[in-house]
């Protein structure tokens, strides 16, 4: 079985865009800004043998504020810049009641089945309670990237400032042979 690091996109890999109604996902390619340290952090995790899988909610498509084509263009750009193995997207909104929208663990479960991932040996890195809840429900160790984000009522296993710190924490546990969880 393989191990993976599941990564939320907005706020972990790329900057959120500030709009009138608050922080949001990039709606077009020109708004994509990869956060400092992300390429190096992902490279280090890949070299340690982790699959890197982005799992992202993109409800702005369901809300009519952006298109699937725009989201796919953003993902093509991220793939060209970063060494990720997969990008999984939920285009639904809360009212749709799907199994893939975080906090549901559907995207993590599907990736685990398709790629032979042992979730108990894997990590979920996110900046919102939905990410942490999805990771916990899937049985992953959870890492909350903090900063000017919303408060979470779902307790992560650890909190860090950014993806670089998350990668260092994961790698230190891997080298020590610590069990996940």
Structure, explained:
- The protein is built from five helices and eight strands, in the order βββαβαβαβαββα.
- With 181 residues, the chain is of the alpha/beta class.
- It has one domain: HAD superfamily/HAD-like (Rossmann fold).
- It has a six-stranded parallel sheet, sandwiched between helices. A two-stranded antiparallel ribbon has the order 2-3.
- β6, α4 and β7 form a beta-alpha-beta unit.
- α1 runs parallel beside α5.
- The longest helix is centred in the middle third of the chain and has 14 residues.
- The mean pLDDT is 92.
* Gyration radius over CA: 15 Å
Helicity level = 25-40%
The main β sheet shows up as: 6 strands, parallel
Q: Please count the beta strands (DSSP E, at least 2 residues each).
A: 8
Q: Approximately what portion of the residues adopt beta-strand conformation?
A: 15-25%
CATH names the topology as: Rossmann fold
What is the CATH class?
Answer: Alpha Beta
CATH superfamily label? HAD superfamily/HAD-like
Specify the number of helices.
Answer: 5
What is the 3D form? globular
Structural class: alpha/beta
**Ends distance:** 17 Å
The averaged pLDDT comes out at 92
Low-confidence spans: none
Number of domains: 1
Order of helices and strands: EEEHEHEHEHEEH
CATH architecture: 3-Layer(aba) Sandwich
Strand arrangement within the widest β-sheet reads 5-4-1-6-7-8
């Amino acid at each position: 079985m393989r191990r993976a690091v599941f990564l939320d996109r907005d706020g972990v890999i790329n900057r959120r865009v500030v709009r009138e109604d608050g922080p949001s996902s990039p709606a077009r390619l020109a708004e994509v800004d990869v956060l400092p340290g992300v390429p190096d952090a992902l490279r280090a995790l890949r070299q340690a043998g982790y699959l890197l899988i982005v799992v992202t909610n993109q409800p702005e498509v369901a809300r009519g504020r952006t298109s699937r084509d725009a989201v796919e263009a953003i993902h093509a750009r991220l793939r060209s810049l970063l060494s990720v193995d997969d990008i999984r997207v939920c285009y639904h909104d809360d009212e749709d009641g799907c199994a893939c929208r975080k906090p549901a663990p559907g995207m993590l479960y599907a990736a685990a089945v398709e790629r032979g991932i042992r979730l108990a040996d894997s990590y979920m890195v996110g900046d919102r309670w939905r990410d942490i809840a999805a990771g916990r429900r899937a049985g992953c160790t959870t890492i909350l990237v903090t900063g000017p984000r919303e408060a979470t009522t779902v307790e992560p296993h650890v909190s860090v400032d950014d993806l670089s710190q998350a990668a260092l924490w994961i790698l230190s546990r891997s080298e020590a042979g610590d069990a996940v969880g």
